[in-house]
Task: inverse folding
């Protein structure tokens, strides 16, 4: 990865932290912030892009998908959603 890739990844990670801290549900905000505290440094370009897409979804849907109440739509990165759900269960 060149300099531009590094800069873009840093910017994507900052955007993730910013968006995770501004959710409509405090519970979802805490889950996302804790997840990013633990996982952010290990997220590559692809994972950051998937996470940014995830943050476009409603908090209610995210919680329902993590809890298995609703099936996860095909458009959502299932591996990332599984990691987020596992993290939420570990820290609840």
Result:
């Amino acid at each position: 990865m060149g300099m531009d890739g590094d800069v873009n990844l840093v910017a994507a990670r900052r955007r993730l932290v910013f968006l995770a801290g501004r959710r409509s549900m405090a519970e979802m905000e805490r889950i996302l912030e804790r997840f990013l505290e633990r996982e952010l440094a290990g997220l590559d370009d692809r994972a950051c892009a998937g996470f940014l897409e995830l943050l476009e979804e409603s908090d209610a849907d995210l919680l329902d998908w993590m809890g298995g109440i609703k099936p996860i739509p095909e458009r959502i990165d299932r591996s990332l959603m599984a990691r987020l759900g596992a993290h939420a269960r570990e820290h609840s």
User: Anything to note?
Assistant: Residues 3-90 form a domain with the DNA polymerase; domain 1 fold (CATH 1.10.150.250). The chain has five helices and no strands.
